[in-house]
What does this fold into?
Amino acid sequence: MPSAAQPEKATQSTPEENQSPDFHIAASVSLQERQPHTLKHGDTFAVFDHRGDIGADPRSPEGIYHNDTRVLSRLELLLEGRPPLLLSSMNQDDNAVFTADLSNPDFVADGKIALRRELIQLHRLKFVWNAACYERVLVRNFSEEPQRLRLTLRFAADFVDLFEVRGTPRKRRGRVTTRRDGDAAVTLRYLGLDEVERLTALSFDPVPAHLDTASAEFDLSLEPHESCRIFIRIGTPAPAAEAWSGRNFYRQMHAARTALRRSVGRATRIDSSNSLFNEVMRRSVSDLYMLVTDTPQGPYPYAGTPWYSTPFGRDGIITALMTLWLDPGLARGVLRFLAATQATRLEPERDAEPGKILHEMRRGEMARLREVPFERYYGSVDATPLFVLLLGEYYRRTGDLDTVRELWPNAEAALHWIDSRSNAEGFLEYFRMTDDGLANQGWKDSQDAIFHQDGRAATGPIALCEVQGYVYGARQLAAELAVALGLEARAKELNQQAETLRRKFEDAFWCEDLSIYALALDGSKQPCRVISSNAGQALLSGIASPERARRVAQTLLDHGSYSGWGIRTVALSAQRYNPMSYHNGSIWPHDNALIAMGFARYGLKDSVLPVFRGMYDAASYMEQRRLPELFCGFVRRRRNAPTQYPVACAPQAWASATMMALLQASIGLEMRGGAGEIRFDHPQLPDFIDELCLHGLRVGAGSADVMLRRHGDDVAVTVTNQIGAVKVIALY
It folds into this structure.
């Protein structure tokens, strides 16, 4: 293994030559076929089908998961041994509760209908709270006759690691055992190869007529219009002091709702004259806060379900950056968590070096056994400069110098790592120190994502276009922090470094004939002359000259890049373009949001609006008005919806934050905590919003409610309520 300072092996290999696992998501079944419903709290999440069942298709990722392990792989509700008919199901608006309405099918005996369909209602209500999934099944008899019915719940737990669900094979696994614990409880146990015992406890109320280690049966006797209720708890064993029964089901549900409401209450409330846009925003906010997990350092948005319900450095930072105006508390939680997990020593097997910011953290058996490298994995090149950039933007937004003082040593460690890993030309490059790690370490981290104009894979070390922008922004903002801390000499040094990088970036990355910056420079310092969305993200930091920023915007909004729904990851002209690929032609909502924020930085509001419009229209077609992690990059056709990607996560944190970032870019919203200012820089509203109300814009010790009204191409800004010393400024 070469040392960190001498990555000879890494510079000679290419992603496609390497034989290590690429950790892609196997797609034997499309999530879009099943349209699963998701609930989450903390480190536990549940994925159900429309009936509220789990595991009807063994290839699906449905299940209840805790700490990256599927702790329940089957849960099937049967009435008289048959699946009930689905009437409807939904996640309620706040994402706290899932409900499903079902009814009986026609029951036939001796060739005659013994019970006509739709006379028995089954109403399922579920929520996840404190490492357990709770369910109430309400059974109601709407017939005019007494009914005797048998209701069965079949269950099982395979205790499969999430990476195995995703498609990574294992040669050996631990041992599953089951035990009945009395008349109304069952425990399923798994002793892993890591010597950790994982338990799933199932409790029922009332006591089932029959219970074994795979099913519970209830004999129901219902008079006309009579109903009964069955309560189930599934999860880690309840503490002895909190013996569970159906009597405290509603208390637990109230606690779950209250906690979620309190979390959402930190955010600015958004209302508009467009009811459909309001639905999209409500779903976005609900999804975001469902994914937020409280850590010892503060709230952290987990990346997404089902595949990424865990802390990711890049995802958490970008989500916090896009929602900074809405709720700066998220950014503070992300910064403090990532500071607490920042690498402090060289560990090649984790791609860790002092100062690097976490890429991904996992708690499952395969990670603990190093069958996958992600227990604490640092193989991302962008999370570290993004950490410094977010800290600077957080300070601008809040004026919170105490947090800056607390995290300044972490920022300096991150900046030192950037300096140590920048090449002779001053560009930050990536390479991996272990063949088990990720071959590509930017946000486009699939193995085929970085390539040349002729389709050849780029050899490393690789300097990505947008990463240089992140470094430029990090150094500029770190200079502002240094001034605030009284470190004038350090501020001057950082500003000089930023300006030098800007000049070299323009010279090395600009492709005049393509009117865009190159996707990357390869190990031979040759540009990857591909029209890609990465160049749009580079605008976020201001590294581009104004004239070239304008040309980048024109290129990305050309039909070769802009599908009508959004900007593709690579243009139609790219040799590896494929609208169904993960990173080579698909459309990622968060990518579009960051690009739009970059457009707005240069005052290119006419370029922001079509991106906003495309994402809004796409969301209006999506299940539950929810933007997924990504969708396919096919051209938009009249009266057709966007084409879904088969294994896209939904909800995904940075996709949930997309509409909030697009709204900010459109209205030019800037907030300065130190000065107590709320600014609207040349605000514009898209043509689908005539009036917008922002309730509780908090800055410093005060807050304001602001209304924006569109009159043709002009937008009027009115303060409707104000608390404390807040200045609202509109620039035209």
